């Protein structure tokens, strides 16, 4: 009897010891194709780490952002790994909300990260998030329409050429519009494009004393250019168009030029979904000619560990697995080179197989290299960020300013009025936040 | 001649009613149709109404990617749990307010209604902190409590309105026959307001089923209901309309079927006491 009891106790102890060692990581991620693919491939991670279990929370970007912000700000501790963008990384790292990543594993080659991306996810020289995939913005255009109009797209076009070409290839009777640009209001919608446009034309959001700059000629020039061009060569109802609406227009052959995120290249060149897959050409985000600044945007969906997580080591182990070079090889082996997460590693762009499978690889690399989040425009700025300003207040201000420019595009207010309103509301919010007196 | 006129009027009314009904139902119909299209067809312009290549690939993808049954069960428990809890509190409260009103009854009712005017986001952080400290984050119990409190003003108001329609003399007669308070509520009052209670129940199940703000913010995975299931299929960049439509169809189907079968009860309850 005593022996049985002893054996039973020993078994129970072993079972409980096993349970105590196994850890479950809760991972919050965004519903993008690359992340969904990562979820499907996690058997590889589990096989290598049988003591770590994974629980996924996949959400739409805005819902995810609200949820993870609430959780991290209140130290809720619901997540062990969060998918965040380079907008959040410097703000959250500065507040001590993220753990620095220093245990990503021996195979994690930090020096292989593209320098612009590495800088975008670092704070004080330390990595606070590991980039999963990166993107910038570039020009996508219809080679057949350009040929028909007798035009040749330069590798590095300027805004004057884009405007001229867009007007020339517009054929409204055939429902072909020269250019499709974002018009829907939002800090991550029209303001992503308009901030990049203004950067390239020498504009900036704030001067060194955080004074808003919408009353400066650079912004006037940018908004005038945007509104006039969209009126002449844009699709009807453009003020309601975001990324997905423009994607649909381009894929169905209704846009001559589309300037947007590099991730779009894989959608428009996929013959399964795009009617113009074999007719798409790519070029660098335009500059204004004299300044030579592309003002390009840079975004990196990255994995980070919130300060509240108690499973720091296991979380970093997973991040190391998901963002090192071996993961890229794993995706390539299972789903082909065209499906690997782009925009983070130098070695990927040196890989001939990838360059052959993805015709947009080199233009994407050129776009990412052209982005400079530390110096987004020619004039000095007190902030970092390409298509955004990395301060917590920007989400609210960016969307409010975006509403003004969306209204200008819809013809409800003049560009001058929209700029005056933008200046006023930004100054009010920045005063309230204590940046200016 | 008069008969002809009446037939014509009936026909016109029927046509108008059907047109109106179909117009309201159209977004749901469009969602269902989109769920059977490929992603390329889902974004095609001009869109095709019925003549497209029908496919169930979106449903297959949704099934393989998410645990629909788990989300569904969470929705059932949260929606019905919070509704029954709200009814348990509201029935005696509404009875007291309807049959033994005081000077402050109306004020209390108005105050309860005013809590619905406050934007939910204003209370998110305090509620989140309470939930964090009490271990209620990502639990069905936590959501049942929150949704019970959120729906309580509406449940109470509806029941109060129904109870007010009951003539006080009936209760007096019961009391004269020696019925106790409990017996009065259970045997006299409740059977008379069954249609009202049933419609309150149905309406609140629908409200709780559709509630997205709190369910999304207070759950992660274990207690995540169908609202979280839908939220995982929308994306700011990419092709997702087909999959999102399939997920939405799967999420609204149960409540749509429930509403269809109980529509008589709903209409009866909502118009209870309207013609008097």
From TrEMBL, chain A:
* Entry's localization field: Periplasm
Q: Which residues form the signal peptide?
A: 1-22
- Superkingdom is Bacteria
InterPro entries with a match to the protein in the record: Bact_solute-bd_prot1 (IPR050490), SBP (IPR006059)
Write out the entry's keywords from A to Z.
Answer: Periplasm, Signal
Question: What CDD domains does the record tag this protein with?
Answer: PBP2_TMBP_like
Kindly list the GO CC terms recorded for this protein: periplasmic space
Q: What is its main location?
A: periplasm
- Report which residue ranges the record marks as coiled coil: none
Q: Would you identify the family this protein belongs to, as annotated?
A: Belongs to the bacterial solute-binding protein 1 family.
Could you identify this protein by its name? Extracellular solute-binding protein family 1
Recorded source organism is: Beijerinckia indica subsp. indica (strain ATCC 9039 / DSM 1715 / NCIMB 8712)
UniProtKB/TrEMBL annotation, chain B:
- Per UniProt, residues of the ABC transmembrane type-1 domain are 72-262
Looking at the keywords, is Iron-sulfur present?
Answer: no
CDD domains in the cross-refs: TM_PBP2 (cd06261)
Where are the membrane-spanning stretches? 12-33, 72-96, 108-131, 143-163, 184-209, 240-261
Q: What does the record say about its membrane topology?
A: Multi-pass membrane protein
Q: Which domain of life is it from?
A: Bacteria
GO CC, sorted alphabetically, is:
plasma membrane
Q: Note the InterPro entries from the entry.
A: BP-dep_ABC_trans_perm, MetI-like, MetI-like_sf
Q: Which SUPFAM superfamilies does the entry mention? A: MetI-like
* Location relative to the cell: Cell membrane
Question: What is one Gene Ontology biological process annotated in the Swiss-Prot or TrEMBL record?
Answer: transmembrane transport
Q: Where is it mostly found?
A: membrane
The alphabetical list of record keywords is: Cell membrane, Membrane, Transmembrane, Transmembrane helix, Transport
The answer to whether keyword Transit peptide applies is no
Signal peptide per UniProt: none
Q: Which family does it belong to?
A: Belongs to the binding-protein-dependent transport system permease family.
Spell out the protein name for this chain. Binding-protein-dependent transport systems inner membrane component
Q: Which organism is it from?
A: Beijerinckia indica subsp. indica (strain ATCC 9039 / DSM 1715 / NCIMB 8712)
